[in-house]
Amino acid sequence: MLDRIAVLVLACCVWAGAVQAQEVGSASGKGTIERIVEPMTGKSEQVTFQPRYSYAYPESTGAAKFTWIILTEKEPPLKAWAVAKDRAEARRLWCETEKTSFVAVKLDADWKVDLYFLCPANGAVNTEMLSTWNGLDSVVVDFEVRDGKKLKGTLRTGSGACGDGETWTYCTPTGDYTFDAPLSK
Description:
This protein is an alpha+beta fold. The chain has three helices and ten strands.
């Protein structure tokens, strides 16, 4: 009887660890994503984006180390993404088939924004150009918690710098989000 209980407890612990490794976090806020309506003319529209879920994971390419933060409107298929050979393509396909939007931020080893991607619920991933020339970064990630187990903070995006010379804000804000994402291994 004790052997069965020990096996049951061990099975529960293993299952809980597997679930924890695939846990999705929370996100909130509001922003917009540009969606091309007519590729030939470049006509586009702004799609509202309001994330509810967040997810973060490390990535290594040779000696380079990165961290990804993903915000989504629908609960993402974390297990499928974790085993995909090309996680970016897996996200793109999910955006297209589920008709749901996401934003993805790739941070470098110094926790600075390296790349910023957006998918407006149609599988067409936009790569946002990062700008700092006016003194205000177009994509800003600030952390409240960054402890190796989770990333909690804010993600703000926009274009242009408007201000009085001392205080600057985006002329056109495009996103203001919070996230509390477990950092998968």
